[in-house]
Design goal:
The structure holds two protein chains of two kinds.
Chain A (H helix, E strand, L loop, with lengths): L1 H8 L2 H55 L4 E10 L19 H17 L2 H16 L7 H7 L4 H11 L7 E7 L2 H7 L16 H13 L2 E5 L2 H4 L13 H32 L4 H13 L4 H15 L7 H25 L3 H9 L4 H29 L3 H5 L20 H9 L4 H36 L1
Antiparallel strand pairs in A: 1-2, 1-3
Chain B lengths: L27 E12 L2 E12 L3 E5 L6 H7 L10 E9 L2 E2 L7 H7 E4 L10 H11 L6 H14 L3 H4 L12 H14 L4 E5 L7 H14 L4 E5 L3 H7 L2 E6 L2 E7 H6 L4 H7 L5
Parallel strand pairs in B: 3-8, 3-9, 6-7, 7-8
Antiparallel strand pairs in B: 1-2, 1-4, 4-5, 9-10
Helix pairs in contact in B: 3-4, 3-6, 4-6, 6-7
Classes of the chains: A mainly alpha, B alpha/beta.
Chain lengths: 464, 277
């Protein structure tokens, strides 16, 4: 346009020159802009790669340290349930006319007798029979032989007899866990060059393990007991995560049942129904602040309120769940409110326009389109709660608990706290690996929860 | 029909007597008297009074921001949903004050339906879009009745032929024009007496617009329609009466033909000849 106009006025030469100059200027600035853009892209790419590298290093480290823990060394040997050692009367049979209480008392008496049996003698005999079978002739004293097998094996044998007393007098081929020290030696976690006094096992025990490994009686087996056993201090090799897993499971249940409904309900009330005034502004500011409160403060609150005032039991998943609920609530409320706010006003108008009441508008139209957002927020909130450790320490969940909680009111461990406890265990050689194994289990659960969130979100969004 | 002369609270605004109502059919059921609307401190509507004739189309025209949509939303109290919006004056339907505190706004909105500027079907099936209103108002008792109502509403909105074989498809999957007719069908389904339309064609292409205009033409046999429009041609095509708003005041209100052919006010003339707006 200008070109034509100017040409018409009769200054074509000047004009062409000016245009060329302008184009050159633009081109120069263009080069500068392109350089800036390239620089920014490289920076972005660099930081993404750096972040990926850190994640890779983290996961590589955790997996390489933790995966070996899922395979533990076991001794495959014949165990003879020697009636001379297991010197107990027959399992009581219920007599006609015997009362329930009497029968129970008799049964317990019988089991107490079983508990008194010197099971170690059977284990030592087991080690010896494996040696005889494989032709290992090393001289070994009873104490050293006993130190090869995990002390938890005693309870395995006892439980077999309780389940089936007819086993007494028979011989069974069993796969017994090596003790933690034995496992360390077999996995070469201790330098073999250390002098005897710095080794955890005596020389004969070490030699026997080596010989039995050579002949194949001592070999690696998948450590299922990590998932089925509870924590143990006396028999660390058989320590497992079942108790901690159930504790975390109950806590997540409490969080899911409390934080999600309460959080969503408060978000709906605040966003859709509450009058906008100074009080609701104050509540909003406080909720936002609560989301930033350090989690250990919630633990203190839990100890003060739930335990001191309401006298709920210490170390109980219920209390842990309540504390984690407090911590998760602001996250759920904030996320739900922002998804409610993101619903286009046209949808609200449509509902109100045909005479829906406000409640009908919210529950029939607004809420359904926010389900994906609310769901994702809830699952991520629960995942965050699952990994939280600090507040649980303050309500006694760092106690050593060696049973699987049957109800949320029983004492229990929790996965992240179990990691913390194992990390601090004095048998470093053995528990370092075990700690990483627990981290793998916790991370696997987290990844599962996040994947669930992503899957549900895409599914619900496709539906909407 | 005579509009009353009156002064708004700010004073000085004039309501011009409209052309004498020639048609005897123009019985007024809706009447607004001295209506004012404030958004917080800002006043948007200054003392507007008018009588809206039954079973005809009344168009509100005026430049952007003149308050015509705000005034329209007074008739089904959609302004209630806007934070800080205050409505003064009196609006009656059949002599009943719709701002009476004892009146349930949900009932009012069942009587006074509304079609919005942008088609806004629910993100549900076509069937559920229509059936939702009658269901919540308890107008249908069983599936057969609902089916019947859905069919008749879609037929009235001229959409039945196009969608009868895919009632389960999402309403949001229709074209813009079809969506708007779906919204009209949805409004009709609750059996309203009055239908408010807030620039119903502004998001539609010319062909869809003309279909919707034909539909409005048919609907006025049964319903009282008030339509806000940016297009003066549309107002001329579909309406019997036209109200011209400017800066929150009703400048002129009368028979559509008279407004466009022989406006009494200089501002009206300036607007319809394209000098303001």
């Amino acid at each position: 346009m200008t070109d034509l106009a100017q040409t018409a006025t009769g200054a074509p030469a000047n004009e062409a020159e000016a245009n060329a100059r302008r184009r050159a200027q633009v081109r120069r600035s263009l080069a500068r802009r392109n350089r800036a853009e390239t620089r920014f892209k490289m920076l972005g790419l660099g930081s993404v790669l750096a972040a990926m590298a850190f994640v890779a290093i983290l996961f590589g480290n955790i997996l390489s340290n933790g995966l070996p823990a899922f395979w533990q060394f076991t001794l495959e040997t014949e165990i003879t349930f020697d009636p001379e050692v297991i010197n107990v009367p027959d399992r009581p049979v219920r007599q006609a006319g015997q009362s329930d209480a009497d029968y129970q008392a008799e049964m317990l008496g019988w089991q107490r007798r079983l508990a008194m049996v010197n099971w170690n003698r059977l284990l030592i005999a087991g080690v010896e029979s494996a040696m005889a079978e494989d032709g290992v002739t090393t001289e070994i004293d009873a104490r050293s032989a006993q130190s090869i097998i995990d002390s938890g094996a005693r309870f395995v044998l006892r439980d077999m007899v309780i389940a089936d007393p007819s086993i007494i007098g028979q011989t069974r081929r069993l796969n017994l866990l090596l003790s933690a020290d034995g496992d360390n030696w077999a996995k070469e976690k201790l330098s073999r060059n250390l002098p005897d006094e710095r080794q955890q096992l005596s020389r004969p025990a070490r030699d026997v393990i080596d010989a039995l490994m050579e002949s194949g009686s001592v070999h690696r087996s998948f450590a299922w007991h990590i998932f089925t056993n509870v924590d143990s201090r006396s028999s660390p090799a058989s320590a497992g995560l079942a108790g901690a897993f159930m504790g975390s499971f109950y806590m997540m249940l409490v969080v899911l049942l409390l934080a999600v409904p309460i959080g969503v309900a408060s978000a709906i009330y605040l966003e859709e129904f509450a009058p906008k005034n100074r009080v609701t502004d104050l509540i909003e500011v406080n909720i936002n602040n609560l989301a930033a409160v350090p989690s250990i403060v919630f633990g203190l609150l839990g100890a003060a309120v739930f335990i001191n005032i309401f006298h709920l039991p210490l170390s109980a998943p219920l209390v842990g769940g309540l504390v984690l609920t407090l911590m998760t609530l602001p996250t759920v409320i904030i996320a739900t409110r922002s998804s409610l706010r993101a619903v286009p006003p046209s949808l609200r108008q449509a509902a109100l326009g045909i005479g829906a009441s406000k409640t009908q508008m919210v529950f029939h139209h607004v809420l359904p389109v926010t389900y994906p957002g609310i769901l994702t927020a809830s699952i991520l909130g629960v995942a965050q709660a699952l990994g939280e450790t600090a507040p649980l320490l303050l309500i006694g969940m760092n106690a050593f608990v060696a049973n699987i909680p049957a109800t949320p009111l029983d004492q229990s461990a929790a996965l992240p706290v179990q990691i913390y406890l194992w990390q601090g265990n004095e048998n470093r050689n053995f528990f370092e690996e075990r700690t990483f194994a627990a981290i793998i289990v916790l991370l696997a659960l987290m990844i599962l929860l996040n994947a669930l969130a992503i899957w549900l979100r895409s599914r619900l969004e496709r539906k909407a | 029909m005579n509009a009353t002369n009156n002064s708004g609270p700010m004073g000085g605004n004039r309501i011009v007597p409209s052309a004498p109502a020639s048609a005897a059919s123009a019985v007024s059921r809706i009447s607004a008297k001295d209506v004012t609307v404030h958004y917080g401190e800002k006043q948007a509507i200054f003392g507007v009074s008018m009588e809206v004739p039954e079973k005809s189309v009344t168009a509100f025209i005026g430049p952007s921001g003149c308050g015509k949509s705000t005034f329209l939303r007074c008739f089904n109290r959609m302004n209630d949903t806007i934070e800080g919006c205050k409505v003064g004056g009196k609006i009656t339907i059949d002599g009943e004050d719709i701002y009476d505190p004892s009146l349930d706004v949900v009932e009012l909105r069942a009587r006074v339906g509304m079609v919005f500027q942008k088609p806004n079907p629910f993100p549900k099936s076509i069937y559920d879009n229509i059936a939702y209103g009658p269901r919540i108002h308890g107008l249908v008792k069983n599936k057969a009745e609902t089916d019947e109502l859905v069919e008749s509403s879609l037929k009235k909105a001229g959409l039945w032929k196009e969608v009868h074989d895919r009632l389960d498809a999402p309403g949001t999957g229709l074209s813009g024009g079809q969506q708007q007719r779906l919204c009209i069908a949805r409004t009709i389904a609750t059996g309203p007496e009055v239908i408010l339309m807030d620039e119903p064609c502004s998001a539609l292409d010319p062909i869809a617009t003309s279909i919707v205009e034909d539909l409005i033409h048919e609907l006025k046999e049964q319903y009282t329609i008030i339509i806000v429009t940016h297009s003066m041609q549309q107002a001329a095509r579909v309406s019997q009466k036209t109200a011209f708003f400017h800066l929150g005041k009703l400048i002129e209100y009368g028979e559509t033909e008279q407004i466009f052919v022989n406006p009494k006010e200089k501002q009206t003339e300036a607007y319809i000849t394209g000098r303001i707006g």
